[in-house]
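Annex B.
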Amino acid sequence: MTNETSPSTAAVAKKSLSHFAIGKVLAALVGIATLLLLVRSLSRDHYGVYITLFAAFEILQLAASPGAYAVAFRYLPELRPAGGGVGLKALVQRLTAYRIATLMVCAAGLFIAAPAVAELAGGAYTTSVVRLFALLLCFEGTARFIDVEFESLLQQGRAQVSALLRNGAKLLGLLLVGGAGRHEVTLELWLSIEVATSALGAVVSSGLLLHYGAKRARESVAQTLHMPTMARLLRFSVPTYFSQVLFLLTGAEMVKLLVSRLLGAQVIAAFGFASALSATVQKYLPSYLLIGWVRPLFISARASGRSTADLVQLAGTVIKINVLMLAPITTALLIAGEPLLALISGGRMTDGLVYLYFFVFLLFIQSARTVIALLGFTMEVGSGSLVATLVSVLGIGLGLAGYSSLGIWALCGGLAASELIWGVVMAVYLRASGMSFRLPWLSLAKFAASIALTASTLHALGVADLARGGLAQLLLALAAAVMVCLLFCAVLRPFTGDERALINKLLPLKVFVW
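Lipopolysaccharide biosynthesis protein: predicted structure tokens.
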């Protein structure tokens, strides 16, 4: 039964997009400022330890709640327009309670075992650091999951308020105790700030979620429970959960843990800083962030009977938007990467440039992977995701096998191979489910040509040498790299006329010309 009193998915999506655009601009500023201040405020050894802890956090916060993310990603968008507000409220409440309970169990175990964990991890990991990490796992894990629930419900306004409050408070705390980067901050003090602000964020997020659930239930026409069966939930969420955990255990976060263990805090600091910069690009690019906005739209479109061909076309458009944003960034790094990295790290992490090149290259592959995963969620191909992840372990295995001769670059090559293998296998499973996915190869070639033409032209004109002359010259070189690359893209036109028209419909002004 359709809820006649609720706004249409298109109307909600458009409103959500406006909240998304405003919130993410602010989030980008907060995130980048925090990253740049943190690398200046922590010692290199402490920064290396923090990168390792952050990698462990990403693994544990997902592993702690089996199936929770899969259900939130796939079934909340399906229930939102279905009219069953009571059922939606019930699922959200149960899912959130399950998430909090499992995180508390995991964090409590880690808190109790902190002395043993600290001794096993090494001298830099004190008992207090491990216990602060356990508290952070509970509070930040809860707040992040509620943000995911809001995104799945097309409630970008609530998601942005929650995230901005939490991350803005962290930035303010770092500014106060670190004197805007002038004073060194201990790892324990920084983790204490994160725990306090994450706890505040978790409380605010929970309040916003309760308010939304009550409002949705009151407005719903359907007063019966409209909820997927447990068998359906398990059939999709169980294999998806194992594939997500296995991916993290064989992905970039595990590579960071291996680098830390094998090469020490000094190397992981540069490697981790490069990874954090690329993650910031990935996290705050509007094109990548559209995935959180697009996912519920794809699932709603699938539920309403849209053809798989339409979904594949939309997926190709999302990939192109990602690459359109990544192309000028890549060009800027090729032209002025070294002076730029020296500027943003305060001269501490210039040895991380070569790693940054690798992670930006990896972003291109991950853009395609993200969209393929989106299609997998839409088609409920849970078993395919698990098989693809199992096969992709081969890439990391090859990297470990080559470590003795190639060192850290064997691990990087294995990571890239793992991503490619996953995408190929998952595309096969999508085809078996009735969806023929293909990459927009011609458009990708046009982007590559734009990058190559811009880099060669600006190098020939001496812009790369200009970038080393000072801050003003660096900014001028970066601006030239971005503008010339976008100009070449506009000339080569990687987007079709229909795609340009679709994108311009979502923009306040019809300025999309690529």
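Residues 1-237 form one domain. The two ends are 41 Å apart (CA to CA). Further annotation is deferred to the next reporting cycle.
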